[in-house]
Amino acid sequence: MVVVSSPGRVRPLHPLHAILLAFPLPLFLGALASDLAYRSSFHIQWANFSSWLIAGGLLVGGFALLWAFINLFRRGTARKGRLAVYFVVLLAMWGLGFVNALVHAKDAWATMPEGLYLSAITALLALAAAWIGYSGFHAGEVK
Prior knowledge:
This protein has one domain (about 1-140): Up-down Bundle (Four Helix Bundle (Hemerythrin (Met), subunit A)). By secondary structure, it is mainly alpha-helical. Helix content is about 70%, strand content about 5%. It is elongated, with a radius of gyration of 17 Å. Keywords: Membrane, Transmembrane, Transmembrane helix.
């Protein structure tokens, strides 16, 4: 038996929230990869792939954001500061992802280079949100 000791009360990440949190990172990373492929090949389908991946990341990320917002105001939740940081990072990820979706709604080459930069920043924010989410809300004991 492995016991992970942590000071104070640690609330486990709900399994559904963990599933919702798992999707934005690969979707936004895929959008970044397709933007890089579009920049090097000029095939318009890569821009279409990026738009769809961003839309998927926004959809699932919106549900994760809603869950984090509800958790932020629940009574008895330990570590409100960490939850607030997690919520703000998710909110920034979703907001920049939405702006990125608007940029990708333009004509294909008109998305460059703003779309590429926004995809990179959104992917980094998704990585930070996943890092904070999975490292901070784990169970105190693992058997």
